[in-house]
Amino acid sequence: MQAPTTQPAARRVLEIEQLQFAWPGEAPLIDIPHFAVDSGERVFLHGPSGSGKSSLLNLVAGTLAPRAGSIRLAGETVTGRSERQRDRLRADHIGFIFQQFNLLPYLSVLDNVVLPCRFSARRHERAVSRDGSLQAAAHRLLSALGLADAELQSRAAAGLSVGQQQRVAAARALIGAPELVMAD
After folding, report:
1. CA 140, 141, 146, 147 torsion-angle sign
2. What span, in angstroms and rounded, lies between the C-alpha atoms of 45 and 64?
3. Do 132 and 97 contact (CB within 8 A), yes or no?
4. Is residue 171 within 8 Å of 138, Cβ to Cβ?
5. Cβ distance 40 to 10 under 8 Å?
6. Cα–Cα distance for residue pair 103/115, rounded to 1 Å
7. Cα separation of the two ends of the chain
8. Which of 94, 46, 36 is nearest to 70 (CA)?
9. Cα-trace Rg, the chain
10. In contact, 35 and 16? CB cutoff 8 Å
11. Which string of DSSP letters, residue by residue, matches the chain?
């Protein structure tokens, strides 16, 4: 007789309960009774301009505070924390690809990619554990995204095409294996 095999329970990465948000003096923009994302799950959020997509991402990231409700990220409560605690939680658990990429133009491609690991010991440790060094982790990600050229990797981000900047921003979001990657 063989023991039954069971799949391990998916780890909950994001959980939202009774979330409400409105800009001051305006009607409620976001009202979410319950929403959850498990590890490995992909979610595409779409809607017209002004419908609250970016606001929701900023609530999850802790850069906006909700009117009511709770947000849990990687098992930790985001809501009710100080700004500094939310910054730490975001640095440790979220890779973010911004609409305008937000690369630092004077830093090299490599320095832009490893930047999150300068703010998060957790992501730094994960990157080094997997690849041996931050630079090796950055090289691996950039190569996977079609930016393997060493000369290109040492170039300042300001000298890149828009498509290259987008791929650098993706590598930056992925370094150190954050539990949640968000793209706005």
Report:
1. negative
2. 18
3. no
4. yes
5. yes
6. 10
7. 51
8. 36
9. 18
10. yes
11. -PPPP-PPPPPEEEEEEEEEE--TTS---EEEEEEEEETT--------TTSSHHHHHHHHHTSS--SEEEEEETTEE-TT--HHHHHHHHHHHEEEE-TT----TTSBHHHHHHHHHHH-HHHHHHHHHHHSSHHHHHHHHHHHTT---HHHHHSBGGGS-HHHHHHHHHHHHHTT--SEEEE-
**Of the given ranges (30-39, 44-53, 106-115, 149-158), which has the lowest mean pLDDT?**
149-158
Q: Note the pLDDT tens digit of each residue in 71-84.
A: 999 999 999 999 99
Structure tokens at 135: 């630079």
- Tracing tokens 């319950």 back to the chain, one arrives at 34
Residue 26, class by beta-carbon neighbours within 10 Å (0-12 exposed, 13-18 middle, 19+ buried)?
A: exposed
Q: Which two tokens stand for residue 143?
A: 């190569």
- The 10s digit of each residue's pLDDT in 124-151 is 999 999 999 999 999 999 999 999 888 8
CA gap 128, 72 in Å, rounded: 27
Give the number of residues written for the chain.
184
